[in-house]
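Posting this for the archive.
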Amino acid sequence: MSRKIFVTTALPYANAPFHIGHFMEYIQADIWVRFQRQQGHKVHFVCADDTHGAPIMLQADKQGIAPAQLVAKVTADRAGDLPKFGISFDHWYTTHSPENVELAHEIYKKLKANKLITSREIEQFYDPVKGMFLADRYIKGDCPKCGAKDQYGDSCEVCGAVYSPTELKNPYSAITGAAPILKKSEHFFFKLSDKRCAKFLNEWVEATPLQSEVKNKLAEWLGDGGKNLNDWDISRDAPYFGIEIPDAPGKYFYVWLDAPVGYLASLKNYFETGKAKANGEPRSFDDFLADDSVEQFHFIGKDIIYFHTLFWPAMLHFAGRKVPNNVFVHGFIGFSGEKMSKSRGTGVSPQEYLKHGLNPEWLRYYIAAKLNDKVEDLDFNPDDFVARVNSDLIGKYVNIASRSAGFISKKFDGKLTKPQLPADIAKEFTAAAAEIAAYYDGREFGKAIRKIMALADLANQYVDANKPWELAKRVGRDAELHTVCSTCISMFRDLTVYLAPVLPQLAANAGELFNFNPNDWKALAKSLPVGHEIKQYKHLMTRIDPKQMDALLEPALEAGKEHAKAAAKPEGKGSESEVIPANSDFALVAPEVPKPIVIQPISETISIDDFGRIDLRVAKILDAELVIEAEKLLKLTLDLGVETRTVFAGIRSAYNPKDLVGRLTVTVANLAPRKMRFGESQGMVLAAGDGTGIYLLSPDSGAVPGMRIK
């Protein structure tokens, strides 16, 4: 039975060109979408630019243009990148659109009618020069704990202390350098803490086949009757680039409210422009979403789980709209074991990749081979990339056609005879279709690739065993040669259909050359018929030349050195380069050259009694997760032997949360709990640092959780 599917990827922020992190997600979603289309399902695949928020506004100010102009410029610059990598979106739109205004207003009004919108006065820092309230990222000052200068408004990179912006000493605006003032303002909140939300979300999680890692995280947030759910601040004060709240002049929706609504806005525009009808969907936008059989799926990164599995489903449900059938979450991508960082200028540039003549389908294949259905990070390793592509795609897959097709054209007028697979190989090929289909449908792309390459190995064993190049030299062996080569083309056809979701252009070229439809999965049940005609063989894909990778990497290594030098130069208060990422391309770069270590003076002498009042304990990190609302923090769950604690630590820049789980560290166990807007911090973990790095302290082996440090 044909399915009706609506698919999106996370909306990329419109402040810079696409980077490899975007394309990993687009490639993952595109492979899944292409496979569903192969099965005869109707898929509507849409996305949009995420265009609103303070960073866009400030970057536009910096460039002396209007925010809408900046957004249009970025969108135009990256418009051609998607089709070059075979990404098959049906429609791409923008959140700066009349459809998004209409839908955001409608959803807000329905939430308000359901008594899920409330307002209250809050106090926060205000830049009197810029005339705007400041988010934590735009406030810097001296750490209230260790006195380190130029620390951000949520945590210290030197001592790891966590605090509120109002606790900073000598605070200043990172935008203008001005001393901020405390100012009150009315803010609007979505009442996620309402018991109705907890009840609905628990039911939705139970009914939805989310990944186990996501379900476990949601169980923490939704546990204890939903007491861990906090109301969500959905408003910002002018000046702000965004959608004005309909009944509150001068107030704007926080970008994270209107951004996911952009999924629906893009779909609505897709219908209104007639593209949906051209894609076989005659109904209207409203009728389509009112159909209970329509399935809605979102592909996202692990850093935005909170928004997509709590706020988004709750918003949709209480606004009377369809909720997601699933949210597919993936990890991050790194480079040779190093973290890719936008703020440091490190990453993989899709644009530079293409400039150096690298085939985009090589990248699609490499990423697919590493992807699974888990929330796991993957690594781009240049040497592995070259070896895997050359070995699998050229040495195994293309090799089957190149060693057999020429004989069909030269000796048999380009016509096939009946293929005759050995029984053991025939059994493997026949059984593979269902197995590979299940892997694709379950987003186990790495397993699908391994199975396909195992079939390619069998096909090559058949070629090596029958040696068509030797049969061609022997008199009276033409019939055998014809059968062997036809059998090779038949196996190659099957492999091409299996690889088509990953390698759409290569599959299309192979289909054109050998006269079959690579997107017809059902055709796998039948062999190519006797007399089937193929064209004169042309080479389908070249190997990666290591010099191509060298050409890509060498300039990037130099760029990394220059970036490190620039990063080492001191900047004055309010330097916008610290806050607003430049609208520049990404490159593969070397790790930064470390800054000289600065040892701070020894603090004033304390007595043994003073030290004795500090209860230091060994703690085991049971869990670690990103804190969406704070860019520097990780939320740690600690085992202290007799109890567990939640601690917010400013170590996000130095550690991957997954790598911390199971590690022993040291915590201040008798530190008074600190109430923060995203939860209560019940202690402090100890780390060393001088502003250039953070080093979490760990006890020696043999220590156990709860041991006191003396």
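DSSP finds 23 helices and 27 strands in the chain. Residues 546-568 form the longest helix (23 residues).
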